[in-house]
Amino acid sequence: MLVPSTIRAPEVGALLEAGRAATPKFVQVERLLTTGWKLLAGHEAQPLRGWLSDLEQSGIKELRAFAVGLDRDFDAVRAAVETAYSNGRMEGQINRLKTIKRGMYGRAGLDLPKARVLHQAQRPTASVTKR
C-alpha cells in the first residue's frame, strides 16, 4: 500500500472538491461538521441544542448516533464547552503512570517504579489552561 507524503493545502482543497462532486451528502456533512467545530471553539453552549437537532434530522446514521450520544450526556458536553477547565493535565499524569507501570512489568518490585514516579513528580511543570 502506498502511503502518501504530507498533504499540502491545495491537495486538501482538491480532495474536498472531489468529495463534494462525487457524493451528494458530502456537502451536508461538511456543513454540519464545520458548524460543530465553530460552535465548540466559540465556547457558547446556547446553539448546541440546535446543532444536535440538525445532526439528528440529517438522515445520516452516523451523525444521528453521534447526536444521540452527545444528547445522552448533554450536561457534561455543555460544561465542557462553557468552562475554561480541562482535565488534560490529569489525563497526562495517568498516561505517564501507566507508561511507567508497563515498562517496569516483570522487572522489579514496587520500589523502582515508586522511585521513578516520585522522582518525575518533583520536576517543575508548566501550567496550561483551555483558553
From TrEMBL:
Q: Which UniProt keywords apply?
A: Plasmid
Q: Please list the residue ranges annotated as the Transposase IS204/IS1001/IS1096/IS1165 DDE domain.
A: 45-106
Which InterPro entries does the annotation name? Answer: Transpos_ISL3, Transposase_DDE
Say which domain of life the source belongs to.
Bacteria
What the entry lists under Pfam families is as follows:
DDE_Tnp_ISL3
PANTHER family hit by this protein: TRANSPOSASE FOR INSERTION SEQUENCE ELEMENT IS1557
The entry's protein name is Transposase IS204/IS1001/IS1096/IS1165 DDE domain-containing protein
Organism, by scientific name, is Deinococcus aetherius
Q: What is the lineage of its organism?
A: Bacteria, Thermotogati, Deinococcota, Deinococci, Deinococcales
